Amino acid sequence: MTIQTAFTQIITALAPIHDQREAANIAHIVMEHVTGLSRMDRIVYKDRELTAEQSSQLQDALKALQEHQPVQYVTGSSWFYGMELQVNANVLIPRPETEELVEWIVQDVRNSKLLNCRILDIGTGSGAIPIALKKELPTAIVWAVDVSEGALDTARNNSRLQKLDVHFEQVDILNTMMTSALPTFDIIVSNPPYICQRESADMQEQVVAYEPSIALFVPDDDALLFYRAIGLLAKEKLNPGGALYFEINEAFGQETAALLRGQGYVGVEIKKDLFGKDRMVKAVWA
Q1: Among 97, 99, 137, 145, which Cα is nearest to 117's?
Q2: pLDDT single digits (tens) 146-160
């Protein structure tokens, strides 16, 4: 089987699941993973035969994709903030919207000149947020916590691969006995679970079936569970003038802002993402 034939086979196999554009995008990702060749090189060498090992790898990938597995889990990697990070079923696949949250923090830190700040990421998953922050703010001291040991293993490995020093701890953020041991910080950031259970019916099957539910969902009757808990924790762990940043559910922007104001935060600001949706909140602890 040639490289071109294999590419066409992927698109054909994915036609019942994805539109042509998305199928082609996935095909490019899979073919680069299987062959190690860039898109341009695959055009130049389109008649090159796949090895037996590559053909077997391709068929395994196709089977997984037809079972609606996300292509990032199939290849084991995802791009975030210019870095290729390892991902697996223990962690969420990093989203472009989260890059905007990182950029907001980076710009605020640079504008404040507080480059030696201390940063904590809560619910770190793959480590995308703290690793990106350490990359952009190399003199910052960056910590990250998660309840999942599997997620932390992935995050630690990503930190090593990127050669960036982030301190990771296993902490259940809803357990005050565990959080009491954390030091103080200038910035606390979190992209916590924020999707209500009822919303799962409208989500893509590949997300609901394969991404970790512990990192996605909150009870329908307590959508702001983690924002409330982290807000209370940050009042104890933020230095005076420190800032709290959240990624949020677009449906609860005003509610999240009101919760933080009610907890005593000032300068509460909602920021929209590139799609015009309420996606981030910043609050200052005076």
Answers
A1: 137
A2: 999 999 999 999 999
